[in-house]
User: Fold this.
Amino acid sequence: MEGLKSVRLTEFPPPNILTQTREEIQANAESVFDQIIQSLTSVPAATKTIGMRKNRNTDERVVDFTGTFDEVNDYFLDNGWGDGLPVVPPTIEAVEEMLRYTDMAPDDVVATLKPSGTQATVWSVAVNGVIAGCKPSYMPVLIAVTEAVGEERFSLKHAGSTSGWTPVIFLNGPIRKELGFNCGQGALRPGNRANMSIGRYLNFVFRNLAGFKLGDTDLAAIGRNFMPVLPENEENSPYEPLCTDFGFEAGKNVVVVQSAGCMTFHFTTAATAEEHLTLLALEALKELQGEAIQPFAAFGDEYRPVLVLSPMVAKILSAAGYSKQDIRDYIYDHARIDEERFSLEISRMYPGYTLQRIIDEGFLPASYRPDDYPDTLLPLFHNNKELIIIVVGFEERNRSCFIQQIAHQGLTCAKEIRLPKNWAELPK
Assistant:
């Protein structure tokens, strides 16, 4: 639909097709045949085009509105630019202060964001950073995050789907300490400016630049709020940092961004390394695909759920000789779902489909054929490399959790943070 002057649409009768019986679906399908024929044999009236928008020349430094703090906030809410909380007025002086922390020019395009097709410039990144309450020194992180969600593979255009997923930002490198991120106890709690404001910034990118508006391009059934940045607790981790799993050297400043459907209960594990592994596999089965949700989150070319591992548990596993890949291997081998239930869910959600047909049409790899597994138990992942592991949280507690990823929506994207040449001289 993007960029088309007219679109031929025929609405399937409500309610949601997923709540209709096979007979109701067939009857409703017959009722729309005439509408389909009419749409295909006539020229529809031109409709609103969703496509590229011309950006204002940022060198103009135009003041759109002048008023008190309350008047500015009302102006933002009235125009759909706010998130319901007070925003920081993006004065020209505040935006220009942000620009000191990048070597890029204000008009440089950071990313083209769908569905609006807006070109996010360095200037617009700075504006939304100010609005979100970011410090000027956060600017290099904001640019990297915007680049990540602008990648085609991230599929930002799907972020307004009814599942209402939100992105999560992981962070590695010395910049965590330089900018004062919290990667230890209560890392996701409110109270830390860097963690909170950068997460809020990404929410403004979705709203103000990508163009997601409730009831229009954002059709979340219930939805979720934004997530704070989740920086890795590298100083208390026995493993190589997350960024190395994406081809970056340890010590590099890197953001990793992906969709987050939900975060599971922060469960407690046991004493020995082997007991920890057993419980991690059981929690993965329960929280990722067992009783918690339907087994279709794994559909798509990739599926990258995240194990947020307590530093304490990570040290116990590492001391016993288990690497991050050993943890992935164990969960892959031991967290499996019964083929009978898998097939039942397929037939319920997709009438006429069997597990074999799903495989034949490429929605799942051939490795999901039941004959390849004893007792017809199927793995949660496509392979033993997909599970992401990051060490975060309080060093003296054995609480861990999983973050569910939404398969083909919000695929994982990693970007190195580029610091300006005079970074060391700038106040942080």
